[in-house]
Every structure is written in structure tokens, then in C-alpha cells.
Amino acid sequence: MASLFDTYQLGGRTLPNRIVMAPMSRARATVDGLPTPSTVTYYAQRASAGLIVSEGVQPSLQGQSNPYTPGLHNDEQVAAWRPVTDAVHTAGGRIFAQLMHAGRVGHEAVAGFHPVAPSAVRLEAELFTGPRGRLPAPVPRALATSEVAGEVAAFADAARRAVDAGFDGIELHGANGYLIQQFLSSNVNQRTDAYGGSVTGRIRFAVEVAEAVADAIGADRVGIRLSPAGTIWDVEESEVAELYTALYRELARIGVSYVHTLNSADAELTAALRKAWPHTYIMNPSAGIVGPQADRERGEYWLAQGMDLIGYGRAFIGNPDLVERFRRGAPLREADVETYYQGGDRGYTDYPPLRD
Fold it and tell me: Which CATH superfamily is domain 8-339 in?
């Protein structure tokens, strides 16, 4: 049986282990979307992971959700990311940038842009906007058919910038109720054009984005994160098995390197989707940010179910040396929830590693 500590070939890269640091928003960038010297330290501390997937990075100001999140839509941001990727590589690691467009999970108070979505369906929630605190999510503006290509192009441009910044590849954020999953959904997507209605219509945006980024940087540098049947940010999906089977078929045709899923579907659907995907499959044992953090045993369970790599999120916050802790059987530290998003170095770069 495969072990978490086995090497693995992901495209043309040899990963030293099968432990992936999953993407996690930390809200430590500048107001202009620039990573900081503390970001360099944070990711370098965790470079022993087989692969790091960065926090969500907005491909455009239109796509920004929370304040203090980093971007990849201008040259200044590219330059600010280079010390991060250089530090990870110097420490022996590999890092993909997760490209995340918020869609309706945004507010004009954050970046000055009214949110867009497949349809004008409001998210019934309050969103953190920075100095103005929490405000009700506005009704998003439905994208015109002619505008969809522009959002696709923003992903492709950000992917090129990610490679220029030194990232080894990119992961599309198609999970957790953000724009790509909003198109996949049956409640947020109420379109009657080619991007809505049927399974074929609802997967079209995700497929076009995957094709565009694969053309831009090569399919072997592209992964996608998905949450089949997930309901974060009030997304609902009908015909889930048919929807994701069709999406996997198209992503495999494009040659996408991996799919990375949360544990959001039931066991039967998860097994069926694993069987339907011919390439690398990353499983995140957690279904979200609630409940106990995943441990080594949960990872080994999913390897035994046929998954290739295991994604850990919260466990990497308090345990920058998570791989070594798993290897030694050392206890894991629980991260301080109050410091997840508060800014500053406390709860970010100050968790100490194991001592010999």
C-alpha cells in the first residue's frame, strides 16, 4: 500500500512525499494585494510538503473577495511573489498558485468593483470588507454572455503571471462556492444561454477556463480544486454525479494534471468520481474549516481508497513541520483560530518546529 512518505511523479516533477499543503486564506497581504516578507517566511517554513498550493490569489480586482488577499494581475504583484517562490525552491519545495475568483462572494467596499456572477442571485450572508466591518452581500450583476470570455481571459493572464513569478503551476479554485462552482451550481446559475441549464451548459465555464490556462502555461502545470455536492456559501448542485463525471471527462481531455477535492460527497459518489478520473487525485480529508483537523490516519485511509496525494490545510497552520511530525508520530499542535485572518506574524510565522 502507498505511504504518505513515498515519492510521487506529478507531471514532470518528483514530489518527495504525498503530503500536500492545501490552500488557505490568511489575509496577510497588503491592501494592494502584495505578499510581504512574512509571506516568504510562512511558505518557506512549510516547504517540506510534497507540494504547496498557495492561498487563493485573485486573478483580477473584479475577482477579489476578502481584503488583504494577494493578487496576480499586475507586474508589482508578480515581483512581490518572486521572493516567496524563490524561498520555497531554495528550501527544496514546490509551489502552485491557487487562482480564485470570488464571483458573488465579494463586495464593492473591498476593491471598488460590484461583484459579478452567473446570475443575479444574492448570497444571504454578511461579508468582511475591512475597515467597514461586515456588510450584507449585494445582489451580484449577472455576466452578459459576451462578458464571460473576459473572465476566462483573466484566469489565463494570471496563470502566465504565476509562471513569471516562479510558481511551478496553478490550481483553479472551482470549489467552496466561488465563481467556477457558481457556474456549476443549479441555484446560483439560472442562465438560459450556453452557460446554464443542462449539465453541458453548467460545466462550460469551468472547461473554458481550464482550456485557456492549459493553453497559456501547459496542461501539466494546471490542477483544479473541486467540492462535489459541497454547499459552502449556499451553493447547491443538481445531478451531481452526472455533472462531475462530465466535467472530469472534459478535464481529462484537456490533460489537466490533477483534481483536488474536499471530502464533500458521500462515499459512493467519491468512489465513482475517483474511478472516473484517470490522472492524479488529491483528497483533502476535511469537508471545510469546521470539525477536527485531519491527521495522519485520515490521510492513510484515503491513500488506501486509491487517492494519490493527501491535502492538509489547518494542520499546516500550527505545524509548519507537519511532514516530520507525521514521520515521527509526534503530536500535532492545534492552531489558534483567532489568528487565522487577523494579520501580523502571531499565529502565522511563530509556530515553532519540533526540537531534537
Answer: Aldolase class I (3.20.20.70)
